Amino acid sequence: MFRKLTFIFALTSMLAVSIPAQQTLTYPKPKKVDQVDDYHGTKVSDPYRWMEDTGSADTQAWIEQQNKLTASYLNTIPERDRIKARLTEIWNYERVSAPTKITEGFYLYTRNDGLQNQSVLYRTDSKDKPGTVFFDPNKLSTDGTVSLSGSSFTDDGKLWAYGIARSGSDRTEWKIMNTATGEHLSDTLPPNRQGGVAWLKDNSGFFYQRYPAPEAGAELRAANRFPKIYFHKLGTPISDDKVIYERNDDGELTSGGGVTEDGKWYVISTSKGTQRMNEVHFKDLTRPDSPIIPLISDRTNSWGFVGNDGPVFYFRTDKDAERGKLVSVNVLARARVWKDVIPQSENTLNGVQMINNQFVANYLKDAYTNIKIYDKNGKHVRDVELPGIGSAGGFGGKQDATETFYSFSSFNAPPTIYHYDMKTGKSTVFRTTPVKFDGSKYEVKQVFFNSKDGTRVPMFIAHKKGIKLDGTNPTILYGYGGFNISQTPGFSVSRAVWMEMGGIFALANIRGGAEYGKEWWANGAVLKKQNTFDDFIAAGEYLIANKYTSQPKLAIQGGSNGGLLVGAVLNQRPELFGAALPAVGVMDMVRFTEFTVGAFWKSDYGDPKKPDEFKVLYSYSPLHNVKAGAKYPATMVTTADTDDRVFPAHSFKYAAALQEAQGGDKPILIRIETKAGHGAGKPTAKQIEELTDIYGFLVKELGMKY
Length: 706
Fold this sequence. Notes:
This protein is an alpha+beta fold. Helices cover 16% and strands 34% of the residues.
């Protein structure tokens, strides 16, 4: 594995806002412009194009009016105070991560005393000692909106490169600190969409990726294209940094790299957009001015670097193995021969770590974790026994480490950290989570349902034990379904509180994710994206048919690509749901490529400039399929003003269109967070406030008793 440590992931025409006692809403009336674009002969109207200028007086006035409307509505819900009190109470528990061994006598872990906005890094000379504060991100701002967004230590632990992000932005500023003295070096990378830092073994410098600087004032919306990999020599100006790898053939290609643990190789992965399929190049760091050498020159399969033994490289790949396998190759051999080390199995190989000169393989069996250990020759050594249906992660450490740590959690099981002896295979509880939640009162089950085309789809369902299946249970159905990302069972305070409130939580493992390998993703992408929506609709129908809930009690929820999911499904089956919660969603599917990293998503969505792909995009685009006069369920759109991943104008335009079209009597609201981005690094206080509003909204709209 790489020697790199990353810590945890004014409108003059507006009407006045008023909410009479009967809760009749008067929505702001934004202006509309005569903007029509021609896509392959199809005329597409975009009357709210002006909202893409998020800093304009008109847009800012509309935001203010909408937040005032939403706040006025939410303030009429008396249960919100109790919800906030319980969220605050259950959130207020000590959260401590597993220790990571940086080098001998230097362990690092994170701790949050409960309600701190950001977790604090602690340093200790033993995994069993508390140690002292190493770095406190809470001191970077008074409101907790500056967060740690990346971390990389030199091999000897003497220098630390760390990234900080402001207001949830993906743009990161990197600084270098002497770990013994706490002093900072003059070397600083200015805010950019940096790809992380990879140190040379002698600490003389590091590799990193950056994009061309956008125009001043356009940092949060400008399209990002043509990144380059640079080398920075410590003590020299950033302006002198040398480009060591670039791709001028396609602005949507992005490259990132890491230095191998032995310090001898720099391995570069290049992919298009967000595709997992990638090219691989490498550089011999033992020879000055060595060239960049191609290893994989096409992008038809995924290749994830795992580790190396000298010139023998190990990769997790889906070449000739949809569900993944581990392979090896001698990169210096005159005739490179690829060898299967761990062949494909019936389960999906989610990832591989190299520890104790063995391979720890993380598999997904129907979307929950199985861990298996193999020796260097691919011989099965043992399974790691886990407590039940849930998610396990961790297993970090250097290739010769004999100990490691992992965590396990599920919807009803707060994270437990285990110490694992790689030699004996013994797991020992290292730390439990003192959360005020009794998981024994809740159960987690997995069911399977058939989608529209007959595909068998899994879904996790969690709720209080003994619940009656009489169709009266308020239920949140959550989904994502995209970008080859698996959704697995795990604990969260928000879901725990929802189940305490009497709610059911359902997670559908719809197509577009990676739960069953490459084909599962491909059958929910580009021209087949409708399968994702069909799966989610079928999940809702299953919950209703089996009397977990009923239409008036069923809410759907998703964020980012999941926000797109909720928006699309809401248009297609508005009568099926009682409430909808699309968060930071991609809602304009004909212009998503115009902003920040949107063009990278064409691997999942397709390209609106291609006639056949535009046709599919336009057919489900949430913004363009809002139907005037349709009776939409209660909907609360959420986004943030500094989201520079999914540009907030997506949500602005969608909410305005939905408010105008609503033919029913249910509210259409938008909640626009300030000084927050796509979600990463959001302060605890803001998370609690947002969840209070979301659950208050559901209590009222689903008719819950709380």
